Each structure stands twice: as C-alpha cells, then as structure tokens.
C-alpha cells in the first residue's frame, strides 16, 4: 500500500511533505525545489518555513514531482 | 482592542440558506450576535442583533419583521434592511448614529456566508466553493451540530482522518485508514492545506458498503482540501478493487464519489457551529440511501462532538501551552494550525490599525 505523491496545489509557493513509503520518515520540499527529510513533522515544517530567503524567486524553480492536476474546490 | 483567537477579515458559513426566511433568525459568529432575515425580494440580510437603544436582542419576541423593516420589541426602534434606523418612538428626529452594524453576506452553494471584519475588504471572489451541494448531479444530506469546543479542535480532527479507525470504527473507520501514509501539500499564501490518503486495497466500511452496494474490498481515496479558516472538503472516491481508475479527461465512471463538506464556524472562544454535508453522485433518487447516509454521518459527527467536548474540558483545565506530541499523521493538522495562526495575527493587526482612538457618544 503505497501513497501516491500527489501534486494537487498549483500555487507558486506550495510546500509538500510526503511520508516516505515503507518508512516512518517524512520528506519535505520547499516551493523552491529543495528537500529535506525528518522523522518529526513539527521540526520538518519549522525547517521548511524557515528556509532562507535566498530562493531564485517564486515560480522560477522547478516544482518537485509530477505536474499539478486540479484543485476542485478553488 | 480585544484579542481573540478568531481570524478576522474572513468569510464564514453562518447558516444554510434554507434556515433563513421571513422569520428573524439569530446566530453568533466569532463572538458577534448577528440577526439574519430575508427581504420581501428574497435577499438575505445580516445586521447586529442588538438594538442601539438599550441593546435588546432584535431576534427576541415581540421584535418582528414589518415588510422590509425590523421593529424592536422593546421600544419600537425600527431598522431597514441596511441596518439604518428609520424611526424611533415619540419624536421625528432619528439620531444620526442610530444604525446597526451590517454584515456583507453571500448566498452560495446552499450556504449563507458572512464576512467578519472590515467591510471594505469583503471580496466575494475569496469565498471557497462547494458546488456539489446544490448541483443536480448530486444528492445531498446535511445538518449542523453544536460543538462545545474551540474550533481548532475540529480542524485538528478533520485534518487527520486516521482517527476514523478508532473513534468511528464500525461506521467509516477501518484499519487501513490509520495504516496508510499521507501526502500533505500547503499553499501558505492561499491558505489551503491538501492531505491525500489513497488506499489501494481496503475493507469497505458500512457507511460505503450499504450506500453503494459494494460487498468486497475497495480502493478508497481520501483527498482533503481545507480552505482556512472555514471550509473543509473531503473528496472521497470508492471503487471495487480492480476497477479502472479515472480517465485522463477527468471522467470516472467506475467509481462512486462522495463529497463530504464541513463548515467550521467559531461561535465563541470555546464553541463551534459544526456544519456537515454529504453529497453523492449515485443512487440520486433513493430515499433509503439518503436516510441511511444522514443518520450514519450524523452519528459519526456526534461521536466527534462527544470526544471534542470532553477534550475541550481537559484543555481548559490545563495551563496554556501544555506539551503535546505530534507524529507523521499530524502533518496536515500542523500546517492548518500555522495558517490559522497567521490569519488570526493578520486580522488582529488590521483591526488594531483601523481602530478609532475613542468612541464618544
């Protein structure tokens, strides 16, 4: 039973955390494409949101994972 | 300034449209007592539920509607649909300040939305949609349960559906829910959290077995879309194991779809209006299925209400900031908390900036 790494939100500032299949670990992606792993969601959110403001600019970095589909309720 | 845990400058669901007619209707939203009624033309209108004279509730009898005016049942102050006082007893001059605070409202997707905050910032395009609720392609059952707990507890509850396995076993919970990893996405700027849990081979809980007629194991997808602060959507896809997946064009004829919608509206600091709706795209005319889903979902909601009411008592008895422990299943709920905190801070900052120096009357 594996999770689909869904990419549903298509804003230019989307953070994404995937529960790594077969492990207890989480992998998180900043909207700039950089990723990191952790076993603690509190620590992971804190590190993602505190990611230094040294990005190339919102929307210019490749989004991780497959292309977003649709956001039904938007 | 009054600091609250409510997010101001936001839209909230105040009622179902069907609740508001030509009778005076009151509901407290984010600590504000609001009077709702429909004009003779059918438009919903919202204003403070307190007469400016001596604070008598305008929803309280013998207050009454007279055409498109509200007459206070205490001394007869009379207000128009815009909240402006049009007559006072015994004198011709109506004081210039005799007006009720009015609220922007929007009727959409069977809900009545009300804007809590600075009226100049009310933008109807910001209201998130739940189009299934009044779509002819779906049949919907719905209700509202009062919750004696802070709204954040319901947000926590709905963002982490692994609790279904334990709190709602025998209804919507099966072991696979808690056992299946999730993917979480957050758009901080838009205030949206998306939590996805796709179960490839799961037991079919009674909620879906009895409504769809599926007898074997199922593919069960739960895709949560939370539009902070108020609207929660659970896109639920149910199909027999082995059935084809959705088509590239979005069509999905081999699956059953249930859209579970919650509106999480704070009443006071420690109470919440728990609006719930279940819309389905199958058995549209089958009243037995409607009755079953209404009864079953209400039972599930009430199981949450009992648990969260108790949790509220516990939290209220403990010092603020008492340590919790979060694990992987809480990833979405933690994101929602951060967004809500930011929204509360933004609303508080805006109201502080806009606050007049002193009110003299």
Give a quick set of tags describing it.
heterodimer; A: 74 residues; three-stranded antiparallel beta sheet; 3 strands; disordered N terminus; disordered C terminus; B: alpha+beta; Rieske Iron-sulfur Protein; Naphthalene 1,2-dioxygenase Alpha Subunit, Chain A, domain 1; globular
Structural overview:
The complex is a heterodimer of chains A (about 70) and B (about 350). Chain A has a domain of about 35 residues. Helix content of chain A is about 10%, strand content about 20%. Chain A has 1 helix and 3 strands, in the order βββα. In chain A, a hairpin with a 5-residue loop joins β2 and β3. The longest helix of chain A is centred in the middle third of the chain and has 9 residues. Chain A is globular and about 35 Å long. The termini of chain A are far apart. The N terminus and C terminus of chain A are likely disordered. By secondary structure, chain B is α+β, with helices and mostly antiparallel strands. Chain B folds into 2 domains: about 120 residues, Rieske [2Fe-2S] iron-sulphur domain (Rieske Iron-sulfur Protein), CATH 2.102.10.10; about 220 residues, Naphthalene 1,2-dioxygenase Alpha Subunit, Chain A, domain 1. In chain B, about 20% of the residues lie in helices and about 30% in strands. Chain B has a 7-stranded antiparallel beta sheet. In chain B, strands 5-6-7-8 form a 4-stranded antiparallel beta sheet, with no helix packed on it. Chain B has a 3-stranded antiparallel beta sheet with strand order 1-10-9, with no helix packed on it. In chain B, a hairpin with a 2-residue loop joins β5 and β6. Chain B is globular, with a radius of gyration of 23 Å.
